[in-house]
Design a protein that fits this description.
By secondary structure, this protein is mostly beta strands. The chain has no helices and eight strands.
């Protein structure tokens, strides 16, 4: 995933979403989102996971996943404290 993200806004959406993910010792970072469902009911199938990075806020840790469905790019965030997933950004994909 060597494309850039073109997010329309710097303000996170922080939309709670449902995520299907796999957890495995063999995967980098042990977790890989496969698909997610927005509040509208739309399901997005993830084709590729790019960067995965932890973010620290005191003792709280979240993990940000930059993903694509081939048509758009998204940043999903997993909150390890609440165990909730959030959609923080959605942007157009460009090469």
């Amino acid at each position: 995933m060597n494309q850039s993200f073109n997010y329309e806004s710097n303000e996170p959406l922080h939309e709670i979403i449902d995520v299907d993910a796999t957890f495995s010792r063999k995967l980098l970072g042990h977790c890989r989102p496969i698909s997610f469902r927005r509040n509208s009911g739309r399901e997005i199938l993830i084709q590729e996971v790019g960067l995965v990075h932890p973010r620290y806020d005191g003792l709280k840790t979240t993990f940000a996943f930059d993903v694509t469905d081939g048509a758009a790019d998204y940043r999903l965030v997993f909150d390890t404290e609440s165990l909730n997933w959030y959609l923080d950004f959605e942007g157009d994909r460009y090469e």
